[in-house]
Fold this sequence. Notes:
A: ten-stranded mixed β-sheet; 24% helix; B: alpha/beta; Rossmann fold; four-stranded antiparallel β-sheet
Amino acid sequence: MSVEVLKTKAEQGLADQFTAARSGLPGAGNAWAEGLRDAAWETYRSAGLPHRRIEEWKYTDLRALLRDAYPPAPALTEALTRDDISAALGPALAALDCHRLVVVNGQLRLELSDAGGLEGKGELLSLGDALGDPSDWLKQTLAQANPPRNDTVVALNTALMTGGAALRIADNVKLNKPVHIVHMLTSREAASVTTRNVVVVGAGAKVTLLESYVSHGTAPAQRNAVTELVAGDGSRVHHIKFQNENLETAHLTSWMTRLGADVTYDAFQFSLGARLARNQIFVAFAGEGSRSHVSGAVLARGRQHNDTTMVIDHGVPACESREFNKLVLDGSARGIVQCKAIVRKDAQKTDGHQMARALMLSEAAEFDSKPELEIFADDVVCGHGSTSGQVDEEHLFYLRARGIPEPQARALLIAAFIGEAIEKVENESIREAFLNFTGSWLAGEGA
Amino acid sequence: MLEIKNLHVKIADEDTEILKGIDLTLPKGEVHAIMGPNGSGKSTLAYVLAGKPDYEITGGTITWNGEDITGMSPDERAARGIFLAFQYPIEIPGVATMTFLRTSLNAVRKARGEEQLSTPEFMRVVREKADELKVSSDKLKRPLNVGFSGGEKKRQEILQMSLLEPTLCVLDETDSGLDIDALKIVADGVNALRGPERAMLVITHYQRLLNYIVPDKVHVLSNGKIVRTGGKELALELEKSGYAEFGEAAA
Lengths: 447, 251
Ligand SMILES: Nc1ncnc2c1ncn2[C@@H]1O[C@H](COP(=O)(O)OP(=O)(O)O)[C@@H](O)[C@H]1O
Ligand SMILES: [Mg+2]
C-alpha cells in the first residue's frame, strides 16, 4: 500500500515490540483500551519517529538520535527500597513533606508510596490496572485532555503505555502537601519505559503536583512519559517537573493540559539530567479568565541535548499565558526552546508573552530559540523575546574587585541567572531543593 | 606605600594611550586627591589599580607595599587590601546584597588568614555599619544595587569599604550625584577609616568633597599626566580658576 515508513532500526524495533506486546499490555481484552492503542499505533505506523523535516522536530531528529529501541523494562525487578528512592532523589527532595506516589519501571507501586493522605480527597488508581476496567472519568480523560495532533511520540506512548498514576482530586479539595510522583527506572541493562499519568483536578480544588524523573543506576534508558491534566473551573494547579536522569537516558515527556475557566496554572520544569531530553508542553485554554504560566530552567553541559517545545492554544477569550525559560549551556551542550502560541478567532483579549534566555558558558554550546505566534483574533496583546549571552564581564570584575575569586564569582552570577527562573516555584521546599541542585551542578562545573 | 612609576596605559584592543607616564607616591597614613577635567584619565588610573582587564599597561610599574601588583587578578589585589569605590557602581540582578557582602567579606578574610564570621556576627557588623551610613535594612534585602538611586549606590560602596577594611582605598568620584547631606554621611564614613595603616586616593572633579575629606596632597591629572602637585590649597585654587589651563575646553 504505502511506501515503507518505518526505516530505521529503532523504528522497526518499536514495531516489533508492539506486535509482541499487544496482547499482553494492560487493558488487553478491553475494547476501549484496545481501540485507543490501535488508533495510536496507526498514527505512529503511518509516520514513524519524528525527524528533522517535521517542523516541530527540526532541532531534535529522533530518527537520527535514537539508534535502537531498548526492550521494555521488566515490571518486576529486583527489590527496590525506599532508601534507593531517597538516594535517587537526593536529600532535599527525599525529605519533601508530600503525598508520594512511586512509579517504578512503568507501574505505580503503592507499597513504595505514601498515598494514605489522599484518601477521601478523590480517587487514586494504578493506570495499569484501571485500563482493564476503566471508570467513567478515566475514559473521558485518557488521550483526550489536550491531545496534540499527529505527535508520534505521544502516539507511541498511548500504544505502549504500561501504567502510571490516575488521580482525581475532588471538587474544592485543597491539598496542603504536594503530590509527588516519583518516576524511577531500575535496570542493569539498557531498557525503555512508557508511562502515563492522568490527573483530573476538580473545580475549585488546589494542588501542587511535582513529577520527578530520576535513575537508579547508570544503564542506558529510553523514557516516554505523558501526563494528561484537566484543571476544573476555578482550580489552582502548580505543576512541576524535576528531571535528573542519568546521562545515558533519552527522556521524552509530554504534558497535555486543558484548563477550564478561571484556572491558575503555574508550570515549571527543571532539567539537569539525561543525554537527550525533549520536554513537550501542550496547554489549551477551554474556559475564559484563566492564566497559564509555564517556566523552566535547564542546566546542560557535555553533550547534553535539551529541547523544550511548547504549544499554547488560546481557544477562548480573556486568558493570559506566559512562557519564561532560562538555560545555562556549557561544553558542547545544545539547548532549544520552541513555543508556539495560537490565538484562535474567538480568543479576544488574549494576553500572551514568551521569553527565552540562554547563558552560554562555552564557545561550543549552542542555543536555538523558535517563537511562533499564530494569531487569528484582532484584539490581543502578544509578544516574544529571546536572548543569549555570556557571563557579564563588568559584573564579574565588580565581584572580583570585592575579593571574590573568579570561579566563585562566576558561580554566583550563573546561580543568579538561573535563580530568576527557579524563583517562579512557589513551594519553598521544592524551590530550595532546586537551588541546592544548582549549587551542586555549579560546583561540578568544568568537570 | 603605593608607588606608581612612569605608568603608561592603553585600552586593551586599541592603540590610544590614555595614561602617558604617571608618577605618584602615596605613603600609608596619607590621603591624596586626584583632580582633573573629564576624560583626563582619572577612572582609568583607578581601574588599573584595581586590575580591570580592559586596560593594558605598556610601560612603568605599580607597587603596593613593595610588591608589584600589575600581574595580579582583581581578587588578589582585593586580598592585599586594595579597594576601588566605583564611579558608577553596577547593578547585579539576582545576586542578593547580603549574599554578596558575605561572600566578599569571607573571601577577603580568608585571604588575610582570618576566621570566617558566623551568621549572627556578620549580621551584627553589617547592621552596625549600615546604620552609620544610613543604609536602610530594606536596601540590604534587595539584589545588589538594583533600582537604587545614584546616591544609594555610592553609600553601598562605602558600606562595602567599611566592611572589608581595605588598606588602600581608591574613591572614584564618590561625591558625584550626592546631595550635601549624603556627602557628609559618606565623608564621615571615609574619615572614620583614616588611620596610620591606610592610604587613600580620592578622585574628584570638584573641590567640594575636599572640604569634608581634607587631603594631604592634591595632584592634577590632565591628558593622562600629572601636571601639578600641591597641598590642599591647590584644590581651592582650581575651584577659582577652573581646569581651563589644563585642557578642560577639550572635554
Ligand atoms: N574602556 C574604555 N574604552 C574606550 N575608551 C576609554 C575606556 N576607558 C577610558 N576611555 C577613554 O579614555 C579617556 C579617559 O577616560 P577616563 O579615565 O574615564 O577619564 P575621567 O575619569 O578622568 O573622566 C577618555 O577619552 C575615555 O573616553
Ligand atoms: Mg571618571
